[in-house]
Amino acid sequence: MPPIPADDNDPPSSAVVLAAGEGIRLRPLTANRPKPMLPAGARPILEYVLNALIDTGINDIHLVVGYQAKRVRSHFGPTYRDVPITYHTQANQLGSGHALLQARDGLDGTFLLVNGDQIIDTRIVEAVSSSHTETTATLAIVEGQNAVDYGAVRLDGDRVTELIEQPITGDFRLFNAGVYAFSQQIFETLETLSVERGELPLTAAIQQLIEDGDHAVGGVRTDHFWMDATHPWDLLTLTRELLSRGWVDDPPGDDTTHVADSARVHPDATLVGPVVIDSDAVIEAGAIVGPYVAVGASATIGAGAVLRDTVVDTDTTIGPNTTASEAVVGQGCELGANLTVAGGPATVVLDEDVHRNVALGGVIADRVEIGGGATLEPGALIGPEATIGHGVVVHGRIDGGSEVVR
Amino acid sequence: MCGIVGCIGRGNDTVDVLMGGLRSLEYRGYDSAGIALGPSMNVLRQSGELDALTEVVDTNDPTGTYGIGHTRWSTHGPPTDRNAHPHTDENGRVAVVHNGIIENYAELKNDLEAAGVTFSSDTDTEVVPHLIAQALNDGDDPELAFHNTVDRLQGSYAIAAIIDGEETIFAARQGSPLVIGVGDNCTYLASDVPAFVEHTRDVIFLEDGQRVHANTDSYTILNDDREPVEVSVETVSYTAEETGKSGYDHYMLKEIHEQPTALRQCFSGRGDALDGTITLEEIDEIPQPDAVQFVACGTSYHAALYGASILREMGIPAEAYLASEYALSPPPLSLGTLVVGITQSGETADTLAALRDAQSRGVTTLALTNTVNSTAARECDHAVYIRAGPEIGVAATKTFSSQLVGCNLLAEELVEGQRDLRPLIESLRGLPDDVQSILDSSAAESLVEDYVDSDGYFFIGRGTNVAVALEGALKCKEISYEHAEGFPAGELKHGPLALVTSDTPVFAIVTGDDERAQKTLGNIKEVQARGAPVIAVTDGESAAEEIADETLMIPETNERAAPVLANVQLQLFSYYLADALGQPIDKPRNLAKSVTVE
């Protein structure tokens, strides 16, 4: 049933979620899937986003998909938690404003817009939703320094007076959290703008609304949890935050040990909370898993393996007696016995940017095979479908598909 | 097979409810469709897909407060307007929709014609409204007229009727599916639950011989002696939206991409990787059978071939039979034989007939099906569910993959004795990601460009890969309409090789590097010598990759799991071939999703 067009005074019942982007800075993890499908805890980031929306009362979800869209379509299907999902395709990733335009046909009245690649507390969504009454656009505003992606904000009471696209950190303390409510006017404003340098950002349209002067742009300050993954190691922080907050929908064992009913944990294995073990995962004898470890569906942790601060995605097998700390392991990997990933700090070079003192043991992308006794030096990045031989010491970056022998 | 719907108690929403119901039953047939409404006795029907009827309905804007509807897959008479349901008597006092076959219709029709009745269609169904009208003329009240008519019918049917002046829907089930939906002061009926699941999830699964009177605010279920019976109302769990397309162009492509999830669900909780055991709780108590006979049709038959093959390798005599042959020429069986029916829908008439035949001979029966509470699941002694989720595309894809996993689970549960199943469990657990890796990187779509203009397509394999070859060919022919055949690779030289030319690509399924693989390599050279291009579907363990002209690669796994992966590559090839040819992939001509007539 199509949603009933919202009266302008009703809180929005529809939401647009932007899930078309690759997340270039998260390569090589995004070779087969868009950034919103990367794991936070044992589930894709996007699941948490949809949960937050549905918990707020949203009953009509529009997903804008593009890069590796099939992964999103197949994961969620036509409904999620009984809420219908409409998919809109953004063929070329030309920015968030362009993405929103793709969903225009499915929307009446006011609606929410969130990014599919950031974890947000339900209360942020609620705050934006309930304060969008007399404004054309309403933004969630957070205090902090890490929101530079969406720009800094000048606020006068509850009105936004300026959006600053690329702020110099330190000059500002209020930032746009990327959670919005809009009226239909946003489409008209977007259409007056054009794609420049390959981008039509939403923020340009909001700035235009402010400059037009006939439209009020509201800002809602919030200090609830909000987090974005920009770099691969942020997935470790996200997982740590989620597990600390108990944001795990598997049945809880004790307060911090979450084991799915269909998972099998050997009686001689030890789980150290907080930890989450998803459906059909297997933890073999003598393994010590946790704290801050997420084991995805159908993954296997070999006998005697010791894992902490690690994300193991679905269908991956970790060999016996492996030691891993601060590791991100993608889907479908086969890691041999006695792998050592000792943890950070590391110096990591990504797209010619040098990141120092990063708490990262290593990143292993999807379907990597590693022989027995290999070692990852701190900060190693292994591309998808690479094959690493027995006893290899991996340093720095290994390209996808390559074969490394000692 | 056809789909029928009905609803009473929904007032002015009746037309919308009926049309929505037909829309979700379209998978059961799409040759023609129609509705009949009371109390106006307004009947609208149209050949072609449901959209054609929708136009007629929009133009005529019919009114009614209760009614019945039908979407048709032709069995008696071509798909024309005159053969579209509902059918009526000469005066339009009675309207009837029917799914199934009335076996004694010729005799009944002769009697009616002798009495002066003029028929206006070629269908078997039309005898029903005439018989009811005749009974009314003889002084029966509507209720009696309906029951007296049903008593005279032989064959399989689900029937719904409305009769002028009586605010009731009459319905009867014998051998074809019919379910009742219980709403607030309204009642629905349909061939399958999706037709009304958006209105109610409270459902009564009727048994054969049961009849229904549905009134505005109540319903009565009667047995074939016309006595009211107590029935239980069950709550079904799935939602209407589960059957949407998620933005894919076709259900078939959506379902191909759902296979990792389907396989995960099928295996979940059934294999223990720690102690190396497989358990199917639902059949825990079945002792090891002396022999197993599989009965199935179409794609499910190919799964049965695979299942029989793995059981034989485990030392259990096992055979796969085409269900349509089994009931009429039943093979001998001993009392220790287990007869396993594989049917996605659980409603396939040929398979049900074969299972009933086996049951009548006193052996244990088991249904391996995707549909909880289906007729096969209810009638057999045991049921094992493959948990693939709803499949709408007429060409079976994810259910075949799940059936193959189901066969493994079944075989390991049935065959007693200590075995370390860890390698098998590891490969079955690995299937979702292995399938995903094929979906991420398959070359099938680009291969289609080179082979779209071929004269025909051949598929060969040995051992369990024979089932894959046959299934690959079936998928290809049913959706692309191109000529395609599958053969055990060794059979080529005994005849079919005569068909092989440079315009007939041959798909060779070669997994592992055992004797079967080696011999299949010989067959590859055999067809290459006749100029045919060879596409190897291979895991790279044998030399197939070097010998063949093209390859579709699958991940290495063990021999039980490899057929699932090889088949996914062939599904993708058939899909993109049919798409390149512009065929209606989800609704191939002349076919229906589950065939509930024999």
Residues in helices of chain A, as a percent range: 10-25%
CATH architecture of the largest domain in chain B: 4-Layer Sandwich
Q: How many angstroms does the end-to-end distance of chain A come to?
A: 60 Å
Largest interface: A-B, 34 and 30 residues
Overall pLDDT of chain A, averaged?
Answer: 88
Biggest sheet overview of chain A: 13 strands, parallel
CATH topology-level fold name of the largest domain in chain A: Spore Coat Polysaccharide Biosynthesis Protein SpsA, Chain A
Please state the oligomeric state of the protein chains shown.
heterodimer
In this structure, how is the largest beta sheet of chain B organized?
8 strands, antiparallel
What would a concise description of this structure say?
Chain A is of the alpha/beta class.
Structure description:
- The complex is a heterodimer of chains A (406) and B (598).
- Chain A has 406 residues and is an alpha/beta fold.
- The termini of chain A are far apart.
- In chain A, a hairpin with a 2-residue loop joins strand 10 (152-156) and strand 11.
- Chain A is 17% helix and 33% strand.
- Chain A folds into two domains: 14-228, Spore Coat Polysaccharide Biosynthesis Protein SpsA, Chain A (Alpha-Beta Complex); 249-404, Hexapeptide repeat proteins (UDP N-Acetylglucosamine Acyltransferase, domain 1, 3 Solenoid).
- Chain A is elongated, with a radius of gyration of 22 Å.
- With 598 residues, chain B is α/β, with parallel strands linked by helices.
- Chain B has three domains: 3-242, Aminohydrolase, N-terminal nucleophile (Ntn) domain (Glutamine Phosphoribosylpyrophosphate, subunit 1, domain 1), CATH 3.60.20.10; 245-435, 3-Layer(aba) Sandwich (Rossmann fold); 442-598, 3-Layer(aba) Sandwich (Rossmann fold), CATH 3.40.50.
- In chain B, 34% of the residues lie in helices and 22% in strands.
- In chain B, helix 4 (127-137) crosses helix 5 (142-152), helix 12 (398-414) runs antiparallel to helix 18 (562-580) and helix 14 packs across helix 18 (562-580).
- The relative contact order of chain B is 0.09.
- The interface between A and B is medium-sized, with 34 and 30 residues.
